[in-house]
Amino acid sequence: MKRERTATRATKRVGVPAAHRSGKPKTAKGTARQAGKRKAPKQGAKKAPKQAAKKAAKKAMKKGAKRAARGGSAGEPKRRAKNASTKGRSKRTATPTDGRAAPTPEQMVELVARYVSAFNRGDVEAIVSLYHPRATMEDPVGYTPARGHRAIGTVYQGGFRQGVTIVLDGAIRCAGGSVAFPVVARTPQATLQSVNVFDLSPDGRIERMRAYWGPYNVVGEIAVRG
């Protein structure tokens, strides 16, 4: 009998669910309520993000109103300053420092014509008048530049003593404040081909003269200054 009772008790313990063993059986309604309590979020958690969004929107509206009252957005002053600096740079680039306009291509071509005419007349004074007082002359390129009216005039006098004359040997090129032109120079003993470049000042005078030629461009004998 004892063995039968023990077996019966074991059977009951195994077959009965834990909920019924506790003495408080759970109904279907009770289970559903507990599930609803676990899944349903709190009302305060839903309201918190909405309230934060509303506050952020109000702050943004206040900031926008302040900016509008000041006369523009927060980045407007920076843009105005940038535009002003850009305009200043463009004006400085377009306008010479002394306020005078740069020479036009027509003026550059006319200057070259006056130079060639004075050169072939042997008129040192007329040639020197085309140069700026602080001008330099490098003829040929690579030699020590002559500086100022007196030194430049001396170079031309040396060429005229050899009987040098020049003639244009191609088109005149104008770019920026410079003009370039090819010439053929002749003496009784030699022929020389050169490309001369004038860098001009805003008032149209020659600030820098460079003559591009070398031994390869000379046929015959010609004296070159040192």
Query: How many helices in DSSP terms?
Result: 8
Average of per-residue pLDDT values? 77
> How much of the polypeptide forms β-strand, as a percent range?
15-25%
Sequence stretches where pLDDT stays below 50 over 5 or more residues: 88-98
Number of strands: 8
Largest sheet: 8 strands, mixed
Helix vs. strand class:
alpha+beta
List keywords for this structure.
226 residues, alpha+beta, 8-stranded mixed beta sheet, 8 strands, 50% helix
If you had to describe this structure to a student in words, what would you say it looks like?
- There is one protein chain.
- The chain is of the alpha+beta class.
- The N and C termini lie far apart (142 Å).
- It has eight helices and eight strands.
- It has helices at residues 2-15, 18-21, 28-39, 43-70, 76-94, 105-121, 124-128, 148-161; strands at residues 131-138, 146-147, 165-168, 173-175, 178-186, 190-200, 206-212, 218-220.
- The model is unreliable at 88-98 (pLDDT under 50).
